[in-house]
Amino acid sequence: MSGRVTREMEIGSGPSSRRHPQPSSHIHKVERPPQQNLLTEFQTVIKETFFHDEPLKAFRGQKGHTRFFLVLQAIFPILEWARSYNLEKFRGDLIAGLTIASLCVPQDIAYAKLANLDPQYGLYSSFVPPLIYAFMGSSRDIAIGPVAVVSLLIGTMAQNEIDPQKNALAYRRLVFTATFFAGVTQFALGFFRLGFLIDFLSHAAIVGFMAGAAITIGLQQLKGLLGITNFTKKTDIISVMHSVFGSVHHGAKKHPKLFWVSAIAPLTSVIVATFCVYITRADKEGVAIVKYIKKGINPSSAHEIYWTGDLLLKGFKIGVVVGLIALTEAIAIARTFAAVKDYNVDGNKEMVAMGTMNIVGSMTSCYVATGSFSRSAVNFMAGCNTAVANIVMSCVVLLTLELITPLFKYTPNAVLASIIIAAVFPLVDIPAAILLWKIDKFDFLACMGAFFGVVFKSVEIGLLIAVCGYILCQNPPTAVTDIDTSGIHSFEELHKTLQNRDVKLVLANPGAIVTEKLHASEFTKKIGEDMIFLTVADAIETLSPRIKELP
């Protein structure tokens, strides 16, 4: 059949009352498979779990120099797509890179404050990591740099160990140590093909965790917006609101659909606000400002990482947690845009690339970087074609570090706080929570557990609830008779990918509970209600006339 022919796919899982089988003159008999010994069965499980995509297939039968080049190409995907790179693609990447740079510079300065670091460390983290990712990553659309949730997470966990105000150097060293182990964790997951471990954070749990983190981050920005000096170091809502209302009587002061509009809005706000503070010298009237951003490119920080002692173990613990969260966010972003543009993202290569950039980043004064959804969305809409957009962004950040950081001296903290609030607001996905309630009440409970754990206790507790909620809500291993929102989400991604390839998705023999949830999520409308059958034979009999009619 030609490429335009519509092909069919069948997926089945258990009994259903969806349709009655049509009479058929053919009897399909399934023969008993040959019995396998324990060793063969174990080898099959290992292959299906870790090597289902046959990663070494491309190297078989190749000569020495060809095999060497293929190895380099596997490590550095840029060697593959660079051969077809041209001026037209560069034009799109240049525009996209400049656009996301205008967004990342003010965001980086703001996110560094979330991590309890000086502003330049946010800029450092948008210079080195994106360059490394551009050579090693497989996503064309993802934009790399610090993100709000990861900044909050590493800042919260690190300050529980060391006070950043009393001992800034020790705190910074702990952050670099955590970044190093975050990179090691990510690299190990990719190298040993253990990416399935990030599935312990389900879609439902992530929705709740991200929403809770967004609320927590937004509340913490009240310090900058209201000019509060004595603010709690805790992240729960009760402590934060106590700080806000406790400061009202102590001199707290209030300071006054085109994609590129929202993309340049943060930088425009920073420029205008900085200029206004400078000409009016409002900083002398109590307006809190950035004051100082160190000029120059990233200094080496390899000597600042804790290689021994108690803080090494603490850095390891923080790094593993932060690394997993950062990886989960990045992989989700990469897969989302890959599905839209119909290309494949190699999850293991992504993990190796993320791990490498954070390992190197930890030695060049960066803290954990990952894929940013807001920047990636802008990057996508601005017309990026390849990871060169990340290189363009890095070059702009380099120029910023070398030439214009002193100009941010009078930037008011209130503007940075508003930039963070604007960035995290979309993380509160109310429609997704409503959909969880409609589809699966257990998933909704896991979502709410993660949300309230973050908001009322801490980010770590919310994360723990998210993982535990996922495990407790899983189906027994006895038969697959149910589906959760993560499974439906996977179906939606598969449907998009197949649509782009002119392939129809057909479901055969879904269970009653599965069918009910597919209807509740309106997934059946997306694939067509006539594309669900009781049996595979029923699907083939019904669809065969359509296949025969195709040219």
UniProtKB/TrEMBL annotation:
<feature type="domain" description="STAS">
    <location>
        <begin position="478"/>
        <end position="543"/>
    </location>
</feature>
<dbReference type="InterPro" id="IPR018045">
    <property type="entry name" value="S04_transporter_CS"/>
</dbReference>
<keyword id="KW-0812">Transmembrane</keyword>
<feature type="region of interest" description="Disordered">
    <location>
        <begin position="1"/>
        <end position="33"/>
    </location>
</feature>
<feature type="transmembrane region" description="Helical">
    <location>
        <begin position="414"/>
        <end position="437"/>
    </location>
</feature>
<keyword id="KW-0472">Membrane</keyword>
<feature type="transmembrane region" description="Helical">
    <location>
        <begin position="352"/>
        <end position="370"/>
    </location>
</feature>
<dbReference type="GO" id="GO:0016020">
    <property type="term" value="C:membrane"/>
</dbReference>
<dbReference type="InterPro" id="IPR001902">
    <property type="entry name" value="SLC26A/SulP_fam"/>
</dbReference>
<feature type="transmembrane region" description="Helical">
    <location>
        <begin position="444"/>
        <end position="472"/>
    </location>
</feature>
<dbReference type="GO" id="GO:0008271">
    <property type="term" value="F:secondary active sulfate transmembrane transporter activity"/>
</dbReference>
<protein>
    <submittedName>
        <fullName>High affinity sulfate transporter 2</fullName>
    </submittedName>
</protein>
<dbReference type="Pfam" id="PF00916">
    <property type="entry name" value="Sulfate_transp"/>
</dbReference>
<feature type="transmembrane region" description="Helical">
    <location>
        <begin position="318"/>
        <end position="340"/>
    </location>
</feature>
<feature type="transmembrane region" description="Helical">
    <location>
        <begin position="174"/>
        <end position="194"/>
    </location>
</feature>
<feature type="transmembrane region" description="Helical">
    <location>
        <begin position="94"/>
        <end position="112"/>
    </location>
</feature>
<dbReference type="Pfam" id="PF01740">
    <property type="entry name" value="STAS"/>
</dbReference>
<feature type="compositionally biased region" description="Basic residues">
    <location>
        <begin position="17"/>
        <end position="29"/>
    </location>
</feature>
<feature type="transmembrane region" description="Helical">
    <location>
        <begin position="258"/>
        <end position="279"/>
    </location>
</feature>
<feature type="transmembrane region" description="Helical">
    <location>
        <begin position="382"/>
        <end position="408"/>
    </location>
</feature>
<feature type="compositionally biased region" description="Basic and acidic residues">
    <location>
        <begin position="1"/>
        <end position="10"/>
    </location>
</feature>
<keyword id="KW-1133">Transmembrane helix</keyword>
<dbReference type="InterPro" id="IPR036513">
    <property type="entry name" value="STAS_dom_sf"/>
</dbReference>
<feature type="transmembrane region" description="Helical">
    <location>
        <begin position="132"/>
        <end position="154"/>
    </location>
</feature>
<dbReference type="InterPro" id="IPR011547">
    <property type="entry name" value="SLC26A/SulP_dom"/>
</dbReference>
<feature type="transmembrane region" description="Helical">
    <location>
        <begin position="200"/>
        <end position="219"/>
    </location>
</feature>
<dbReference type="InterPro" id="IPR002645">
    <property type="entry name" value="STAS_dom"/>
</dbReference>
